[in-house]
Design brief:
single chain; Rossmann fold; seven-stranded parallel sheet; alpha/beta
Length: about 260
């Protein structure tokens, strides 16, 4: 029996690279995608674990970029057993002061790009009525998130999309799982301009990307609808998210996301 095949986006670093490493360790061949300069190094690291690794450099914040990635994947002629739709970015700061172009690009990558790639993946998987899809949302998608208002809204979109798509596919052989990390020790907060915040300098160390990825893939293969990953604090916050008043959630997030006093 041949090796199974998975695709992972946002795989040059962080949670995406850890998802790819987790799958490589489970004997999956991979097609990975990122627009970042670290993609080739990530591919070389993954190849050292055995198996085929195809890297595709593409900007998934554009429609043409998603099409390019899918064209390259389709050309391999492989059945996709697992699709980790993970690529995403954040923008931190007060909404009145943040850069509109950066936020619109984030909306496209986190939402429209996710939908576009999921459309291709679902139609492909329906051809043999089999496959698993992991969509990286966030615990922020269930929070009131001042100073990350648009990011949290994109992740609420991803979470709702994952749950709704799972229901649509409930009578098929395709399952959908939402991965909901909390703050994780990646360069996410640096790229979001949030180094000088509690969550960006201290809170992110509560979870490591390898732990998030392991819990995400375990949940995916178990057919779960979602998983809060990876720290105990994140799991508790997730369980309490729907019963905690909005003002309380907002105050908690404001404390973590506002710049520290100099």
């Amino acid at each position: 029996m041949g090796r199974q095949f998975a695709i992972v986006t946002g795989a040059s670093s962080g949670i995406g690279l850890s998802l790819a490493k987790e799958l490589a360790g489970r004997d999956y061949d991979l097609a990975i995608c990122s627009s970042g300069e670290r993609l080739q190094a990530a591919a070389e690291e993954l190849r050292s674990r055995g198996g085929q690794v195809i890297e595709v450099q593409a900007d998934l914040a554009t429609q043409d970029g998603v099409k390019h990635f899918w064209t390259e994947v389709s050309a391999l002629g492989r059945n996709i057993d697992i699709a980790c739709i993970n690529a995403g970015v954040g923008v931190g700061g007060l909404f009145a002061e943040t850069d509109l172009d950066a936020e619109l690009k984030m909306i496209y990558l986190n939402c429209a790009g996710t939908v576009q790639l999921a459309k291709y993946v679902v139609q492909h998987m329906l051809g043999r009525n089999e496959g698993r899809i992991l969509i990286t949302a966030s615990i922020a998608g269930e929070m009131v998130a001042p100073r990350e208002a648009i990011y949290a809204a994109t992740k609420a979109f991803d979470l709702s999309f994952a749950h709704s798509l799972r229901y649509e596919l409930r009578e098929t052989g395709i399952s959908v799982t939402a991965l909901q990390p909390g703050p994780t020790d990646t360069d996410f907060f640096h790229r979001a301009g949030m180094d000088n915040t509690e969550v960006g300098s201290e809170g992110k160390t509560e979870s490591q990307p390898d732990d998030v990825a392991h819990q995400g893939i375990e949940a995916l293969l178990s057919g779960k609808d979602h998983v809060y990953a990876a720290s105990a604090k994140t799991k508790v916050e997730g369980m309490l998210a729907n019963v905690t008043p909005g003002r309380v959630k907002g105050a908690m997030h404001e404390k973590m996301a506002r710049p520290k006093a100099s």
